[in-house]
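ARCHIVE CARD
SHELF: 3
SLOT: left
DATA:
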Amino acid sequence: MTTDADAPRWDEDVSFCCHEEVLDEGSVLVTAAGELDLHTCSEFQRVLAAARDRRPARLVVDLSEVTFIDSTALAALIVVQRGMQRPLDVVVTRPHLRRILVVTGLDTVFVLHRSIEEARRRAA
């Protein structure tokens, strides 16, 4: 479990950061911020795999602070989805990112949420 000291600071001058956090016994949250592309995807894949390896009943991926996403990141989400018993809960607040997920048909693979609060309510 991460602490506030371990969590990345979103105001730092970095192009990407992500981390995982245990929400409760059955849920893990992966939060990403910045540009999610070929150059940053290896870190995203590592964090997603670590979260999946905890074998949570529910994996929430918060992309609300992601400003750009490419096909390598979408592929990483699909790979993790294949190892889960239920659909990933993906938080997408930016319209252009939501559109990418809809156009690619991934809105039928993942459960999309407009806020982290909405994703948490679904779990209750």
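SLOT: right
DATA:
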Amino acid sequence: MDESARRSGLAWAPTFGNLQTMSGRERPQHPEDGERRAGSAAVPLGFGLGGVQIEIDGRVAHDCDDTWDANWLSVTARCQAAGAEVVVPAAVMTSWSIERFCRGLEELIRTGVGSAFLASELPNLTVRVESQRSDTPITVRAELTADRAGQGHWFAFAVTRTDLHRVIGRCREILAVHPANQMAG
């Protein structure tokens, strides 16, 4: 266990690059993050597709302020189907991942075929949305686990184009709060 984990009282605190992730809902957050407010009720940022739920917990707090690091997000992923549920409480992904996923969904709707892919930077969450032909069902395959070394879980769902439109809208809301910062070149 490293010194910062010992000070925080957390039993598990692996590091990834120059940032630290933690289990549970006790991860570091950027001070400007939080839930969006709709009237007086809190509305968490995120989306659901089939049995997959992705909730954006906020930016991962760290000491670097370069463009790449400004895109790191902490998410909670849940997946449920037929008596099974898997929760990954500390997946780390980038705003760019969400932007690419959104564009992939838009292209899938426009052409009727193709795929959109969402993945965390740590190997514990992937979501693939795919359609082989415009007249066939759209499938979602989610692979997620809290312990990649000791577990593996996948789920498959059928969704509609209407579902994709809703997810695109939610992705745009996420990107409005956590834009995909561009690298200075």
